[in-house]
Queue: 2 jobs
Job 1
Amino acid sequence: MTAAAADVALKKGQVGDPFSSAWRRRLPLLPALLYMVAITQLPFLVSIYYSLTNLKDRTQTLIPEPTKFVGIDNYRELYSDPFFRQAIWTSVKMTVLAVLLSLVIGTLFAILLDRKFLGQGLIRTLLITPFLLMPVVAALIWKQQMFSSLFGVLNKVLGFLGFNSVQFISDHPLGSIVTVLVWQWTPFMMLIVLAGLQSQPSDIIEAANVDGATSFGIFRQLTLPHLRRYLELGALLGSIYIVQAFDAIDVMTGGGPGSTNVPYYVYQQSIGGGFRYGAASAYAIVVVIFAIVIATFALRVLSSLFKDEERA
Amino acid sequence: MQKQRVGSVRSHRILAIGLIVAGAVVVATFVAAASGQSTKNTKKTISVAIVANPQMQDIASLTPSLFTAKTGIKVKYTILDEGKLRQVTTRDVGAGGKAFDAVMIGPYEAPQFGVAKLIKNLTPMAKADKAYNYNDLIPAVRNALSANGKMYASPFYGESSFLMYRKDILAKNNVTMPLHPTWQQVATIARKINTSSMAGICLRGKPGWGDLGASFTTVLNTWGGTWWSAKSNGKPDKAQVDQPAFKSALDFYAGLVQDAGEKDAANSSFNECLAQYQAGKVAMWYDATVAAGLLEAADSPVKGKNGYAFAPVNKTKASGWLWTWALAIPRSAPDTASAWKYIAWATSAQYIKAAGTHTKGGWAAIPPGTRLSTYRLPQYKAAAKAFAATTLSAMKAAPITNPGTTKRPGLPGVQYVGIPQFQDVGNRCTQFFSAVIAGSMKDTTALSQCQQIASQAIR
């Protein structure tokens, strides 16, 4: 009886049982999957555990003291920490400003690039260059060659025009960092919007022209609605990356009022000098939760974009 | 049917074999990596992390010809600025990492790391090594790197802080600098000689406890202020950043830099001030005594034009700091024997002599302030006439155990507080102070934020 049942089960397994055959096909992928889980999810679980302890670096206590389980103390402290709130506020300002500005400038460039002119390929390549540069290099170039009040180009120009020199990074840390971020991310936005513009069917625009619409009217009534999804995509992908901005801050200001965003604050609390791994883990986990929320929106926009494409 | 089953069994077997092979490959890779490491060790390469100051750049360029050629030990340098070096070494030493065989640290770290058993006690090796000559080390420096009679790092150069000024500029303005000035006198002179093309004084303004934090804390000490009050057992009691003395010290410092300080002060520290002073953009400079050797170096544009005065004071008798960049061996260092050979050479009297003849800066720019014998070298005495005596007595006068007007928590220190939390508090607070110097933040805001940081840290 049992043997017969087992035989049936076995037969079922062989003759195209969807579960079994699917698993057999996936089996070779299993080591990779386990590897991914081991290197991404286990550390995350360990971080969650750390966030519930008062783990510190060994250099932070003269006499080594055992790590204690402190429950949600780290999260409670985080809630009442004014510097964490400042860092969130800085992150929000930095991300919104950088994303919006690079989106607007990127769209303008994309519209200019969408028409044929002499040397279009060259200009397009030049416009993309900032995005190809390593962020640390971009930040260093801006810090030393543009913003510096001793050898900076901007201050040379200001001096030539008869203005006093401005200490850009010290006086306007947030503005300086946003400038560099915008410079780096404008090409990215430009490419996305350009793809949107080039997917716009030309017959509609011809029809509008025949109907006597002005070019601004065409842009506002036809192009912009068509671009909406692309702009949304650019804004969301841009936000995901710019929220994590670290390189420019570390190179240009090394943190401080107006430029310490959340990732930089977590760094300061952990390996950047604070060495309070327990508290820093709690901060990092809160950041991950925020990031997941934003990423979910991004994925939804992406999938709706592809659905539209299929329909079209 | 039957065949199919056999087939599936066979495929399972193949899969199992595949997994075993894959596992074996992984193991083999690790074994190979491990054996690769051991062959590397027999070739003797050591990794050393040092700070990016001129004397260290010199030793890095001289190491192949003066050390590797004789011992066969290759030295791989990691050269970082002060702040980054501290993060890297603290992280590596604390985690028991094997990245470095020797790291450059100072009297803030050495006793703390030593007491926590994170770095090796160098005393037995130093005393056994005749050529090293343990008793030649300047006692104040040796003590600053020791705890409970054990020396945890070997000094590469030692320094106090003092005031350097252009004698020609002061003479042109008909002012003289006393040998023991007060800060009020210095401020008056700085404001008087300040012009649009040449600032009156260069003071550190770059965030970082070892940058702005060091200069500012010596001012804070002599103003009668302090970061924390101390309990009777030496533990920090309460943050004192909100006290009036702290505010008046910060206001004085920031005000002086704003009125008569260097350009771009919020980004300037030792190296930036050095460049500005040598380029004739500032007339005075309060900083480490080791700078004097660079100002009087053979290739310096301001050679012979400088006067030197002791660190300015307000309420205390002496305010100069005591610092030394010293080499230590992390507890987890892979090759202690080679590391000690390197340290014994780099911090020896012989290297100091070699630096005098092999570097562009010449005798004046050799690593000073570590050995009594340095100050008996005839060539050094001649080249460093202007500042050698002042440096040595400034180092002796540095009030390391009693830097201010009240008891300090933790281990001894002048320009820092000898507790682990100071690194983070100093770094974050000086970001606010730097913003005050730049004029983008009010002093009261910076102080109340810093008070919160300082209180939070010792909870």
Job 2
Amino acid sequence: MRRGEIFGFLGPNGAGKSTSIKMLLGLVKPSGGEAFVLGAPAGDVAIRRKIGFLPEDFRFYPWLTAAELLALHGRLSGVPSDVVRERVPALIDLVGLTPHRDKRVQNFSKGMLQRIGLAQALIHEPELIFLDEPTSGLDPMGRRLVRDIIRAQRDRGATVFLNSHLLSEIEITCDEVVFIRDGEVVTSRDLRTPSGEEIRVVVRARKLTLESIAGLAPWTTSTLHEEEQLTLTTRSKDALPDILRHLVAAGADVYQFTPQRLSLEDLFMKIMGEDRGL
Amino acid sequence: MALWIIAGMTFREAARKKILWTALIAGLGFLAVFGIGLHYQMADFSAGSMPPFLRYQILGGMLMIGLYTVDLLAVVMTILTSVDTISGEIDSGTIHAIATKPIARWQVLVGKWLGFVGMLAVYVALMFGGTVAEARWIGGVVPQNPVAGALLVFLECVLALTVTFMFGTWFSTLTNGVIVLGLHGLAFLGGWLEQMSGFAEGSRLVAVGIVSSLVMPSEAVWRRAAFEMESPLAGSLQFSPFADISVPSLAMIGYAGAYLLGALAIAIYHFQNRDL
């Protein structure tokens, strides 16, 4: 993955997403091979000063208050105590927990725990941030907040490694995504440059004949015909006028022709297979 | 240094969870009961005509029972309070947020261990010191060598703590508790069987005691502490539960120390290398 980008890590349950993060952070030893993080071998203690991590289902000592929890993580991350004192209120404000700063974490909801967990991952202004399901348990406002924070971190120059099964979140937030299955990378997509991806077109028309559909073969990669609806996929938007012209010339009465870019969910289903589920 | 931040955090956790205060209040309750017992014994003595020599032996026996209770309480408290500290954090996933900080794992483990060692030092000093002080002021009896006794009781607690930490890097909280209390129970039984050899004159009972002390030397450390503290006369009375019938040698204390260090080394090694 490249520095300074938001990198999405996608895969079905049990694909090895969390395990991969744990290996990169040195929590789990790989059964084989090696990995490097910021130029150092995975698990290197000194390099962790530059890494922030929000674990999936963040939990911490329930007897600490939100402010104490952040201060402790700051000190454990090697931040001088005067800097910690400055950053704690700012970060608590950033994640929207100012009214709860002196409340014990044991009274926090799951969403509030996620917020304070995100704040502890940022207290030392890391260069690389691993976020394992950062929006699970959050309400829509919380999700937007997390999205904005992630983007702000990228704008600051940090690299964000985002592990999520919420495809819409990944689609909105990430610059690049990698799909993994059974612990192996299946494919990757650059979400900043949509060219070269398949376009899906939904056509509603009367008098669609099998011949006219078969005649679309030079431009399409797949077609699905159900009564008056035809769903097709094509590789290039340049083919769209040709497809429409062909259908009209073949005698179809076209009253809807809607090109749609393949959503990440469609892509995911296509790559992983419908039966695997999320 | 991260090690001391974690040690301090362990102290703070005990205070916040009210473990520290509950243990201290229970300790004060114990000291109150012991003090009242001594006071009434003294009142009975002054009403009767028991020779001073015998009085001293009875009060000395009471002191040893008091100190033995302190020892048992301290060991059980040690196990109960520390049993969840490593395994619980692994089970809950709390450890993920700590073990990914720029701190070596051994520092996490040793920091927690030092925090508990500090708390145990305070607890043993207060309980042991309180019992000895009451016996001195109310009953006028003092143990032979109180400093050696206190240090040995402290060693026994740190030993139990370290074994609890070691198994905590392998097993869940409940399993860990069962193993460590079971081991201490074994050492306890072995120690008493060895003590019974004075009546039975059986060397095989001594062998059973030694073997159980090798498996878990905690009770052997107490019996050495009892030997150090009891007056030579009381110690030679064969009917006393703390009689020096089969006193663990200094080599056994050395073994207990080596056992402790070995358990700490294994705990560090396993925690350092296991998946979290």
